[in-house]
Amino acid sequence: MSVDHYENFPVASLLVPPHLRRPIAVIYHFARSADDLADEGTDPPAARLAALAAYRAELERIAAGTLPQLPLFADLAQVIRDHKLPLQLFHDLLDAFAQDVVKTRYANYTELLDYCRRSANPVGRLVLHLFGRTESARLQESDAICTALQLINFWQDVAIDWKKDRVYLPQEDLTRFGVGESDIAAGRMTPAMRELLAFECERARQLMLAGAPLVHHLPGRLGWEIRLTVQGGLRILERIDAVAGDVFAHRPQLTASDWLVLLWRSFRM
Description:
This protein has 269 residues and is mainly α. The protein contains 13 helices and no strands.
């Protein structure tokens, strides 16, 4: 198992209260399908952007109180109404997916965090809205966890993203550590590359730890779900450390044996 933001979405998990499993599944399918429009298949950029624009038009129909045209959005409209979910969070996700179609490099960490604010953080915020825990401190902790998960996914997938002509490592960090895109293309684990990935992983680790107190403020089942998610992200960072950052030769993943570690650590949080 890898750490991918949407694959860690608590879809129909036994740890999620039964009455919230369907709303969470509907939100997941919206996020997953919109992400796939931007990322999967062979359609040219213009077609991808048009498909995402069609999703945006459906959100605008929901906002106007008119009937959506796509089946997914009929279900989504009901979930949004029943739980009073902010439509802006769905628009933020679409903004991020559209950005992925046209933007393949990030000048600095601030720019990357702004992307994560729209690509990852809305997912956690929507879950918190479903559970009625929207205090400012809880939202900030959720943002830290979601951004950390997104960054961890980037660092474990440096080689995979390169094949899509995407580099999420900030350009200013490449320059600072003396790493060139040719090193990424060749999968060259130079000392500079190891230092760069160690630096980025530590950033993600500190964000995850900053958000971890959220688990103590959530209902039992959701708290355990987030405990496992936090520990899964931290475990992937340990896997990257164990191979000295060589995510080219050893893409870090969690195995069945890791679940015992995650459960043990979750009890100790």
